Amino acid sequence: xxxxxxxxxxxxxxxxxxxxxxxxxxxxxxxxxxxxxxxxxxxxxxxxxxxxxxxxxxxxxxxxxxxxxxxxxxxxxxxxxxxxxxxxxxxxxxxxxxxxxxxxxxxxxxxxxxxxxxxxxxxxxxxxxxxxxxxxxxxxxxxxxxxxxxxxxxxxxxxxxxxxxxxxxxxxxxxxxxxxxxxxxxxxxxxxxxxxxxxxxxxxxxxxxxxxxxxxxxxxxxxxxxxxxxxxxxxxxxxxxxxxxxxxxxxxxxxxxxxxxxxxxxxxxxxxxxxxxxxxxxxxxxxxxxxxxxxxxxxxxxxxxxxxxxxxxxxxxxxxxxxx
Length: 324
Fold this sequence. Notes:
Strand order of the largest sheet: 1-2
Low-confidence stretches: 1-8
Shape: globular
Oligomer: single chain
Number of helices: 7
């Protein structure tokens, strides 16, 4: 007889151990991620972290001010539009879709944002834009320099803008979909390699445009492996490769490998053994789990490479500098 607890069947109809399925492992990672976010952000809020950093003098042109507000408005509208799109997708499917789970996962990954400056300043954000004081000091072991001057923008490079990661995913997904339609007999290895190549190209295009918004800048980059090396809008290609490897390729390849095999997406496998309520929560937490693990993987791989980069660009605007 199938046993149940809190809306979850402990065993499937054929004796399948639900707790050993991918969806439950990913959901467990999602639950841990939520708890970690609460553990980091709650004391930050209690200590009054929800405020801008102490103002200081810097020059920013009127044109850049206007562009900064327009840019933040576009990001906010894009986040709302994506939310509407994924909710409609869930209603059509009558369950939590992969994109909806990923979107929520990428949004919840914002608690990891200060990890980029875990030991040294690898990236700075626009202090003119809407921002709050960094919650970096509340991350275990975090010891970035000048924490009182580090900012987290809310609708530009950090905060809720982490949900914009879905556009990196969408930039690669259609191309892989068309390729898979023509090459349905491809092996998993070939699919992953082609997806990685497409993800690198897509990520380069998307981030090059995003950097022009002036919301953030990479302080350290290996200039010989960067686009526009030596300028404040330089784009480290090493970082692009790691983004493609961690944040884009696994998600896109996972979706299309399931399509080729005519099966459920790996991160959702096992959800069919759950009750409707259990399936909803498991799929949501699964998306949170794989997105947060992907972010952590990016941080772990990218930081050592960033430390090998050169000095900050000489043309770094004052609003992007950590110190005057």
